Amino acid sequence: MLPGFDDIMTAAGRLHGFAVRTPVLESQQLNERAGGRVLIKAECLQRTGSFKFRGAWNLISQLDAERHPGGVVAYSSGNHAQGVAAAAQLQGLRALIVMPSDTPQIKQGNTRGYGAEVVTYDRASQSREEIAARHVKDRGATLVPPFEHPEIIAGQGTAGLELADEAASRGIVLDDVLVCCSGGGLTAGVALAMEARSPRTAVRTVEPAGFDDYARSLRARRIERNASLSGSICDALMSPAPGDMTFAINRRLLGEGLVVSDAEAAAAVRFAFEVLKLVIEPGGAVALAAVLAGKIDTKGRAVGVIASGGNCDPGLFARILAKAV
Amino acid sequence: MLPGFDDIMTAAGRLHGFAVRTPVLESQQLNERAGGRVLIKAECLQRTGSFKFRGAWNLISQLDAERHPGGVVAYSSGNHAQGVAAAAQLQGLRALIVMPSDTPQIKQGNTRGYGAEVVTYDRASQSREEIAARHVKDRGATLVPPFEHPEIIAGQGTAGLELADEAASRGIVLDDVLVCCSGGGLTAGVALAMEARSPRTAVRTVEPAGFDDYARSLRARRIERNASLSGSICDALMSPAPGDMTFAINRRLLGEGLVVSDAEAAAAVRFAFEVLKLVIEPGGAVALAAVLAGKIDTKGRAVGVIASGGNCDPGLFARILAKAV
Fold it and tell me: Chain B residue with minimal CA distance to A313?
């Protein structure tokens, strides 16, 4: 059962007063460089530092602590973990998060900081789905999947809804919206929001090179997987393949997918530091990177960019600033 | 002739469409830590990366290029330089900026990037005022002082006006507003705005230890100078003493001044990176530092914090993240 625009509107109501209505920022310097208008939806300023709180809260706020004593379980490379942990804490639910052992310390620490229990696993040899399923069974917990759930997709879609409404309030018709893409939940939600609120806007995925499963799947019109599960600085965008549900939505609504190199993502992180004064993590910066690296024509056009997260390990951030990445 | 609230309203009209109406951000984590509500006026997201564009544009937008062929001259440790350079470029005027030779490279480079000519001087042995005065005479240029000018103060005051209006729109009466303070222009403008729009709000300066000329001057009720002209990571807050004009306003309107250590400022920069996902330079983070370090009571109170700038040298930022500062 796929979510629709009504579910995004319902989610917006649930999120009101709990999620941040993140600002849509415009930079004169960025506009000049793009030769057009670039609207940045700064989801790095969202509660827990990424858009993930939206979907997590949309689902978890419907769970009652008395009826769900087992709480919630999630698997995540980091941002979903924090979103779920914070949402569960707010709702008074236990949370157990299954995280890859190579997850940046800041994401592991923050997840524990929101009161969740963290269990790590080896990305190369273990299945996070199986580990999570075992804990769900043991605890009688509810699984909060990272993207394959109508309420998760609808929750993420509120970011697109807000961007569409903000652009409209400034009298701007967006030609494109670029979305940092992993499993495709944010992209699907944004695409549904744009279909309803800004139907002339083309929504496009942006992925790191080597992890362009969505771009390839859209081209092939069937789900294709990544060859690797690690090996990019964009640790937030390492899902192995599009989800069935997100792909069903996205294959209908999306334009061609874009791909940027790690070096282009790092340059976007530096640009955000130097010019925008935003902390954007590499995986959250690929949409901005696509604009800066000229992956689409921005001359005389209006482009929305989702800066999807800002949870970057300080050490990696320092290396990026030093141009060592 | 001191500026008043009317001048701030006039400035707001001039700035509309040119300056960024910067967002007022709230962080659940920060509120929990403070035990109250903290509203961050994110002036690091302002055009040129600091509030300084406001005052510069308010003055420079009134200068006609034909009548002012000599353009403008300014002296500045960096943020005012960028504000003046960008405003002059926008207005089609030449700009010459006198900068200390130890100014962070990012500020010198950005100033040149806005088309200005940069002349450096030695902070310890030379007078920036004299150098600037010579260039003003040679060129027939207009001096744009960093704070001692009614239009500069009025321009900076628009940041306070926007903060007051935003707080009111959220139904919040601010108990305090903390302002990062150097020469006192931003503080004076914010104080005038609050007097008119939020008279129950106490406006307070925050300065780095050893450069607390404003706190001491307010206590002594006469202008006192700093003993040193350098030696803090807060390079934006190194003015030698309060201005006559800013002090005349501020002594009437301000509460007691606050002081934070360089270590507390650095901790605030890290907090902004880790939690807020904002790039704030040390001098722009002292107001936030005062909240985080418990320099005022925030329990059950509502406090506005101006994050005045984000132009931090990447090397210094990396050292701060590594806790080497």
Answer: B274
Tell me the helix, strand and coil percentages in chain A, rounded to 5: 45, 15, 35
Q: Are A117 and A95 in contact (CB under 8 A)?
A: yes
Q: Is A322 in Cβ contact with B321 (below 8 Å)?
A: no
Is the pLDDT score of B124 beyond 90? no
* Among candidates B44, B277, B315 on the partner chain, residue whose Cβ is nearest the Cβ of A45: B277
A44 contacts in B (CB within 8 Å)?
Answer: 277
Give pLDDT tens digits for A178-228. Answer: 999 999 999 999 999 999 999 999 999 999 999 999 999 999 999 999 999
Name the residue among A193, A195, A215, A216 with its Cα closest to residue A206. Answer: A215
CB contact under 8 A, A26 and B49: no
pTM listed for this prediction = 0.96
**Catalytic: A107?**
no
Tens digits of per-residue pLDDT, B266-283?
A: 999 999 999 999 999 999
Contact A250, A184 (CB under 8 A): yes
Question: What pLDDT is stored for residue A277 in this prediction?
Answer: 98
Provide the terminal-to-terminal Cα distance of chain A, rounded to the nearest Å: 42
Angstrom distance (rounded) from CA B290 to CA A166: 34
Identify all chain B residues contacting A20, using CB atoms and an 8 Å cutoff.
Answer: 25-26
Average pLDDT, chain A: 96
Catalytic residue among B52, B182, B232, B295: B52
**Two structure tokens written together for B174:** 């601010």
B112: β partners: none
* Three-class DSSP category at B303: strand
Q: Which residues of A touch B47 (CB under 8 A)?
A: 28
Kindly name the residue from A41, A52, A107, A295 that is annotated as catalytic: A52
Radius of gyration over alpha carbons of chain B, in Å?
Answer: 18
